Amino acid sequence: MQLVRYPRSPALHAVLSEQSYPSGTPVVVQSQRGLALAHTRGEPSAESPHAKQAPSGQILRAADAQDLAQAERLSALAEDLKWNLRAQARAQGLAVKIVSLEFTLDEALLTLSYSAEDRLDLRSLIAEVRHYTPARVNFTAVGAREQAVTLGAIGACGRENCSSRFLQELPPITIRMARDQQLPLNPDKLSGPCGRLMCCLQYEHPMYLELLRELPRRGAHACHTGSGACGKVTKLHPLTAQVDLATENGLLEHVPVSELEVQRGKGKR
């Protein structure tokens, strides 16, 4: 099997045909929507979670010059149509954002991705499409994260956002991941360009969960074996295996867990 990706679109997990193609080879793929031009992304290893995914397409053949020319023509047509439809939507007073248009390689299907706060009847836009192509139009509502995948953006790290660059799927990201990593719960710091929690919060979360198992919970009562001072755990430092301990005499910062004794057997994760 090989991983195949459309430009600015979610990845496709495709069945490898009899012939193997080097990474980056343009190929024609039979996807769930129809024929599409894609580029191979290499063969996943046995340890890769993507190797266990059910295939969502099949590589038919390497793309030839005609396929590449057809894909370029349809891409240009889709771009022109996108701006025309945005103008038509404004003229009709439709509160909708036309995100992207994508043709299948045989021009049989045009997928129109849009975003809207309310349910809308967009069939009036089909008449405009008919002036340019006989393709059947499929309307697909997308959320903020899907828009980031399609349009691309620059993340807080200064690089292109992960969802449009390499992520194979969009797993749910929760505020618990930020809490477990002891991050400040500031929406401006934790949100990506799409306005949702950053996808990168998931990367180190399993390691933090493992480290937290060796730490007392925040709020647990513990005593410092060296000084005998007892107090409440106020902050955790998973990466250094230390905690901050608030005692009656003041705050003990960065106390190693090895020098702590949790009271009443409570507070261990």
Overall geometry: elongated
* Rounded Rg: 26 Å
Total DSSP helices: 7
- Total beta-strand segments: 13
Helix coverage percent: 10-25%
Number of domains: 4
Q: For the largest beta sheet, what order do the strands appear in spatially? A: 1-2-5-3-4
Strand proportion: 25-35%
Q: SSE order in H/E notation?
A: EEEEEHEEHEHHHHHEEEEE
Detailed description of the structure:
The chain is of the alpha+beta class and 269 residues long. It has four domains: 2-63, no CATH class; 68-142, GMP Synthetase, Chain A, domain 3, CATH 3.30.300.20; 145-207, no CATH class; 215-265, SH3 type barrels. Helix content is 23%, strand content 28%. The protein has seven helices and 13 strands. Strand 6 and strand 7 (109-115) form a beta hairpin. It is elongated and about 80 Å long.
